[in-house]
């Protein structure tokens, strides 16, 4: 674009107020290493990098993804883009990165600004080394080298105009040093084997390589699509620290609320094709955004309801009095069509899925669920033992999170528990009534030409046939159509083909295929990947209320904090240890452990891996062998966590820390804070209801005229009192954690 046009756009829109910063999380002290990517070379803080003016984009020329988007990005900005699946978040990122076109509006770009882009699923070239993958990437620096090589090849020794332009680009991006720069960023993101073939990399390693490519040449604007997917917590926390630099501008899409709060200072919400900008940043800022969104949606719903009432009146007038209509002013006719649009402007509806909190939502579960005894797993063709002597008895109501660095064996452990892998040694016993539902990290292959509803019907019919063949009785349950509706697939959408689904919609379809089996053992491997934040919240709330056994692996710390009552920790040596607490508490203790070890070593910093000192868990409260043998180990928040057996998950006692720090008091998580606020009002309302019922009971008892009404009121009052007692007990628990009592 021309500098004149950019200056004109800048005068129209101005510059947003810079953000002062968000609370910085504790440093884990582990690799990846500091990179200092925030030192922008082309721009400085406050300089405008990009202006979007009334931007619009449709899908296949039909479905309007967004319209009228107007915003700017300046150096130092940290902007999060949120919205439901299918709202155009990923498309908008590609448009901003210059990788996709738009249908309406304009984008003004700072000509000298460098842009780095990290896609949700990195398309790394096949059959090349890690280093070559970065050198062949689509970064500004790599493109400059490719253009220079092409110009050099066609110049035949002459100094052509193309070669001069290519050399100027090489100088602009300092691309003469691309090899050294590529090695620098790869080392910074924790990739040490630069000759490794990308075909053999795990999902997390591929994401790191793609991130290194995006960071190549120190971009001024970094565009990130779900950067935390497939990453372990050490890498996620590293990104938080690096992305908060003063001069670096970031535009990202993420479902990780903690990551978003730790990095971003503004939030661009896409909802119903429209955009809303919110100030953001810091602890509980996502909660404040939710409150603002709820307030807006209620106002929208009320306005739409009023518009529908007026629209009906105007429609009757338009239909019944054509002659009068001709005589009326054009203004009233225009108002009619405006009312039609306003009546349709209803807020986005939330999902209402039920995992197992309502009758018929899950199969009946007996006392015996799944028991693993001295389970071991060795990778075929090698001597590496990923899982060693794992013994655990899963009981109804258990809610366990599984944590560990990338490659520690988390998914392998889930596969063993689910029965998808056979142990190299030991045994797995499953109760007769146990029905395992496994949401794997990668969804199963589905025929692209199959209709969505037909896919779920096939699974449902197969389940019914198995039950009938075994002489069982089919329970009352949701039909495939109703289940899909609860997961956001409206009836017209259900009859479309699988090929039309977005990444998030495919994840929801995979979830539907699991839930239609009515599992009472729910195993979730990275369940939040590809889901929008609203869906993650619904998933989280339903998992919390699930009455069966839950096991989950997730890099989403907020999700883990809110659903897992205890943790199984994989340390990379094959052993699995039990931690009695949530994910944030575990990370806090590990940070304290690292600091103690560094202090004992004279300040030396560990750089041997993201979980270098995890095996020295010291302060972690693992159940002792005696507790495990007697089933008396400590239990998590719900008092349920499984009975640990001899030689169990905590079979290897952790050595004492070099300088163990006292465990800090636990703080309320976001959802606990919300629950705490609501409980006070709920208890007050229920108490008022109880008092009214009590007055009614006393009056009926004195009159003695209606014994049936007296009995009914007494039963209702007793039920209300029981609810008050339950909520009061929970309120006391939260108040104690909050330090209010």
UniProtKB/TrEMBL annotation:
Coiled coil: 676-730
Superkingdom, taxonomy of origin: Eukaryota
Residue intervals of the ABC transporter domain: 50-297, 370-597
GO molecular function list: ATP binding; ATP hydrolysis activity; DNA binding
Nucleotide-binding in keyword set: yes
Keywords per UniProt: ATP-binding, Coiled coil, Nucleotide-binding
SMART domains linked: AAA (SM00382)
Low complexity compositional bias, start-end: 600-622, 643-662
Pfam families for this protein: ABC_tran, ABC_tran_CTD
Region of interest: Disordered: 1-33, 600-664
Transmembrane intervals: none
Keyword Coiled coil (UniProt): yes
Protein name: ABC transporter domain-containing protein
Lineage, uppermost ranks: Eukaryota, Viridiplantae, Chlorophyta, core chlorophytes, Chlorophyceae
């Amino acid at each position: 674009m021309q500098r004149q046009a950019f200056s004109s756009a800048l005068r129209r829109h101005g510059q947003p107020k810079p953000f002062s910063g968000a609370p910085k999380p504790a440093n884990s002290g582990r690799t990846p290493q500091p990179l200092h990517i925030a030192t922008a070379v082309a721009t400085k803080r406050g300089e405008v990098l990009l202006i979007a003016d009334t931007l619009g984009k449709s899908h296949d020329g039909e479905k309007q993804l967004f319209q009228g988007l107007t915003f700017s990005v300046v150096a130092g900005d940290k902007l999060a883009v949120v919205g439901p699946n299918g709202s155009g978040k990923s498309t908008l990122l590609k448009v901003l990165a210059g990788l996709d076109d738009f249908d309406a509006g304009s984008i003004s770009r700072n000509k000298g600004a460098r842009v780095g882009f990290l896609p949700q699923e990195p398309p790394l070239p096949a059959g090349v080394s890690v280093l070559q993958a970065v050198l062949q990437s689509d970064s500004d620096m790599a493109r400059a080298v490719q253009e220079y090589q092409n110009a050099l090849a066609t110049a035949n020794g002459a100094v052509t105009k193309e070669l001069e332009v290519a050399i100027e680009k090489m100088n602009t991006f300092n691309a003469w040093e691309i090899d050294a720069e590529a090695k620098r960023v790869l080392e910074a993101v924790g990739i040490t084997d630069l000759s490794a073939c990308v075909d053999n990399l795990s999902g997390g390693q591929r994401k790191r390589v793609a991130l290194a490519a995006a960071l190549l040449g120190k971009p001024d604007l970094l565009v990130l699509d779900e950067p935390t997917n497939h990453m372990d917590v050490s890498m996620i926390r590293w990104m938080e620290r690096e992305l908060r630099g003063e001069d670096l501008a970031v535009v990202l899409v993420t479902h990780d609320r903690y990551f978003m709060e730790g990095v971003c200072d503004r939030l661009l919400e896409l909802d119903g094709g429209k955009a809303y900008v919110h100030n953001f940043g810091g602890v509980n800022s996502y909660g404040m955004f939710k409150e603002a969104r709820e307030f807006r949606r209620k106002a929208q719903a009320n306005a739409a309801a009023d518009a529908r009432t007026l629209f009906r009146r105007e429609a009757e007038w338009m239909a019944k009095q054509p002659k009068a209509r001709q005589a009326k002013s054009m203004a009233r006719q225009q108002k009619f069509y405006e009312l039609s649009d306003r009546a349709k402007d209803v807020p986005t509806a939330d999902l209402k899925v039920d995992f197992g909190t309502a009758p018929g939502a899950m199969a009946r579960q007996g006392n015996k669920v799944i028991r693993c005894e001295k389970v071991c797993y060795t990778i075929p063709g090698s001597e590496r033992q990923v899982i060693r002597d794992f013994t655990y008895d899963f009981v109804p109501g258990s809610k366990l999170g599984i944590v560990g660095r990338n490659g520690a064996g988390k998914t392998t452990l889930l596969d063993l528990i689910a029965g998808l892998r056979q142990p190299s040694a030991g045994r797995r016993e499953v109760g007769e009534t146990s029905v395992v539902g496994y949401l794997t990290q990668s969804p199963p292959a589905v025929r692209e030409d199959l209709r969505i509803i037909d896919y779920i019907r096939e699974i449902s019919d197969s389940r019914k046939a198995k039950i009938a063949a075994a002489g069982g009785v089919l329970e009352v349950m949701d039909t495939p159509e109703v289940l899909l509706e609860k997961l956001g697939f409206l009836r017209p959408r259900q009859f479309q083909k699988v090929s039309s689904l977005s990444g998030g919609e495919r994840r929801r379809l995979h979830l539907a295929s699991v839930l239609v089996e009515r599992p009472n053992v729910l195993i979730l491997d990275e369940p939040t990947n590809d889901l929008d934040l609203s869906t993650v919240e619904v998933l989280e709330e339903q998992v919390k209320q699930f009455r069966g056994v839950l096991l989950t692996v997730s890099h989403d710390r907020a999700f883990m904090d809110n659903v897992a009552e205890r943790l199984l920790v994989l340390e990379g040596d094959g052993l699995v240890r039990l931690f009695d607490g949530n994910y944030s508490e575990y990370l806090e203790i590990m940070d304290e452990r690292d600091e103690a070890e560094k202090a004992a070593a004279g300040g030396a910093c560990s750089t041997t891996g993201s979980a270098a000192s995890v095996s020295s868990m010291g302060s972690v409260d693992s159940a002792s062998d005696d507790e495990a043998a007697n089933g008396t180990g400590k239990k998590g928040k719900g008092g349920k966590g499984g009975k640990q057996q001899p030689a169990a998950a905590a079979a290897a006692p952790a050595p004492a820390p070099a300088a163990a720090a006292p465990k800090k008091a636990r703080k309320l998580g976001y959802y606990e804070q919300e629950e705490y606020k609501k409980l006070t009002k709920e208890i007050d309302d229920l108490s008022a209801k109880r008092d009214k019922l009590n007055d009614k009971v006393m009056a009926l008892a004195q009159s003695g005229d209606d014994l049936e009404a007296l009995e009914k009121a007494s039963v209702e009052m007793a039920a209300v009192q029981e609810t008050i007692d339950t909520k009061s007990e929970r309120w006391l628990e939260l108040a104690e954690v909050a330090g209010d009592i």
